[in-house]
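Retro notes, item 3 of 5
We never archived the inputs for the zinc ion complex last cycle. Fixing that now. Sequence and ligand:
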Amino acid sequence: MIANPTEIPITDNHIHVDPFNGYGPVQTANSFYNAGGRVMIVPNKPSWTFNNEFDFKKAMDLVIKYTEQINAETNVKAFAVCGVHPAEYSRLLRAGKSHQEGFQLIKNALNYSKELVLEDKAIAIGEVGRPHYPIKEEELKYQNLIMKYAIQLAKDIDSAVQLHTETTTEIEFKEFASIADEIQIKKEKLIKHFSGPYIRKDENFGLTPSLTSNKDVIKKAIKKGNNFLMETDFLDDKTRPGAVLGPKTVPKRTLDFLRKGIFTEEDAYKIHKGNIENIYSIDLNL
Ligand SMILES: [Zn+2]
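Structure as it came back at the time:
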């Protein structure tokens, strides 16, 4: 049986690869492909996962190398997303850096992300944003400054941004939309990674939700529309197998929902191709 009997370029919008702790780029891409997946959008992993803490440039260079490997050695198309995970800032503080010092280090790294997008080595800035765990008010102030700095860079080069934040409901979507207005970046270029089914404009205020692809979330979402992306947030970390969805989830879910008529073919094309090409300003040629 052919895993993907359709022509749909099934895309996982947020999937990690990690040869230090997991299966690595080629093996992960092959299992994704064998389940029917075609396109992987791969944000870099944080610096502590490869034992060079705070080497942010290396984190980005590694993910670019991995996407190049996937493109050269497998049938999957891979694109890198480069940024500095918000937990890096918390760790800089814990390591004794002042807020100002930490902010400067992250700004330098984000400037490098921008260069990589300009050089077409990455297609977006991310994941950036705010930690998913509680932080002190002073740190929050700086995390917000960092997030806005990253969004401003993206706006300057007409790039998309993948946002990693605390659990987001209408309230936070509204806040991010007002930041987008302030910076004058197109709202759909702000992608809320790890999102619930916030599909309607009165729920996401024009941002792009990238949905955690479990059955319930996608089922709820598609009843309201198809203006969303699908992702797993697969970590490729063998010590944390149950932390997130596996690498086959997006293709499996998509093909299953197509068979059951929960997705129309038009929905699947919109989610996996139309939305992706529009938001990232890329052509999948698939
Ligand atoms: Zn992630």
